[in-house]
Amino acid sequence: MASSRLALPVALLLCGFLVIGSIHSTGAAEGKICPLFCMVGRKYMTCPSTGCKQLEPACNCCLAGEKGCVIYFSNGNVTRCPRE
Q1: What share of the chain is helix, strand, coil (3-state, %, to 5)?
Q2: pLDDT digit string, tens, across residues 13-57
Q3: Residues in CB range of 78: below 8 A, 6 or more apart
Q4: Can you give the residue ranges of every domain in the chain?
Q5: Which residues pair with 79 in a beta bridge?
Q6: CB 53 within 8 A of CB 46
Q7: What pLDDT, on a 0 to 100 scale, did the predictor assign at position 3?
Q8: How many whole angstroms separate alpha carbon 54 and alpha carbon 51?
Q9: Number of helices followed by number of strands (H, E) in the chain
Q10: Which of 3, 30, 71, 74 has its CA at 20 to 30 Å from residue 82's CA atom?
């Protein structure tokens, strides 16, 4: 009886550790913290890996996911993301 009462809390605890571990490991691999703001008027973006293909624009350069992307705006402005 006692073991069945402990099974659910132990299972939940283990699941929590797995979730926390996966969040921690993805953040550590990236090594950066991105601001959560979206630039207004984004139309499309291009990235070096896709050539001239027009992609759904990221909110900002930090969230573009690849270095060297260019975000194009509906008013004709362009933001070139760093190639670091």
Answers
A1: 40, 15, 45
A2: 555 554 444 444 344 445 778 888 999 999 999 999 998 899 999
A3: 70, 71, 72
A4: 1-31, 42-80
A5: 71
A6: yes
A7: 57
A8: 9
A9: 1, 3
A10: 74
